[in-house]
């Protein structure tokens, strides 16, 4: 019945879909071992599993797939317990029709894609935070650490931070277009070098670079299809590494210049 409803719901949709049916929990768990499903419609009454146990076993087996519970119980307590356990939504069989099914599937997939996007950005934030913190404390780049005592750029001047963020996002689009036609990301190198110079003059540190990167990346991937999001995230990862390199080079050049100036001044004083 549900397969027929899904067919009717997506009759006018250009997307291709495949419905895989399991007649028992054992069969469903076996399928989940080597496949990732976009969405799972789960009946709470199966021959070998019932009630909340069914939900818990399925959630453990498909941690990256949203689960929508289908229950025949008119008492919504069980359905609410399923939501608290981790299910994304529920449908009462008494209310099951094509429109309800279509709307629930559509909303669940939309929310789940937004959730996955956020997880990807947070994982990127944590990884970059570790990389840039290492950069700031590394003996070979200790000049970058000298900028850390300055108040974050976003707090000093949000308008300046926002303007630089827009430049970073524009450069991401340039790099993305370059990626579509070449095997290397580098079309925005001159722009990134200029951006690093301006960040250096403002005494920006690793935290500022991370915040600008995350804000620009979140704006770029918002409402984008999953495939494009992944390409954008990879392009942004390469871009922020390039920006980090230019900013480090800027600080090193400043440090070298200051050191040479002190040496010259010291020599002149000794000669006098």
Describe the protein's architecture and organization:
The chain has 272 residues and is mainly alpha-helical. The chain folds into two domains: 2-96, Response regulator (Rossmann fold), CATH 3.40.50; 115-271, no CATH class. 67% of the residues lie in helices and 6% in strands. The protein is built from eleven helices and five strands. The protein has helices at 2-9, 25-32, 51-61, 77-85, 98-137, 142-145, 153-156, 158-181, 189-201, 206-221, 226-271; strands at residues 40-43, 45-46, 49-50, 67-71, 89-92. Strands 1-4-5 form a three-stranded parallel sheet, sandwiched between helices. The protein has a two-stranded antiparallel ribbon with strand order 2-3. A hairpin with a 2-residue loop joins β2 and β3 (49-50). α5 packs antiparallel against α10 and α8 runs antiparallel to α9. The longest helix has 46 residues, at 226-271. The radius of gyration is 27 Å and the shape is elongated. The model is unreliable at 136-148 and 180-186 (pLDDT under 50).
Quick structural summary:
The protein is mainly alpha-helical and 272 residues long.
How far is it from the N-terminal to the C-terminal residue, by CA? 98 Å
Q: Bin the helical content.
A: 55-70%
Reading the helices and strands in chain order gives HHEEEHEHEHHHHHHH
- Counting copies of identical and different chains, the oligomeric state is single chain
Characterize the main sheet.
Answer: 3 strands, parallel
Radius of gyration: 27 Å
Q: Classify the beta-strand content into a percent band.
A: 5-15%
Q: Which regions have little confidence, pLDDT < 50, spanning 5+ residues? A: 136-148, 180-186
Overall residue-averaged pLDDT value:
76
Q: Widest sheet: strand order?
A: 1-4-5
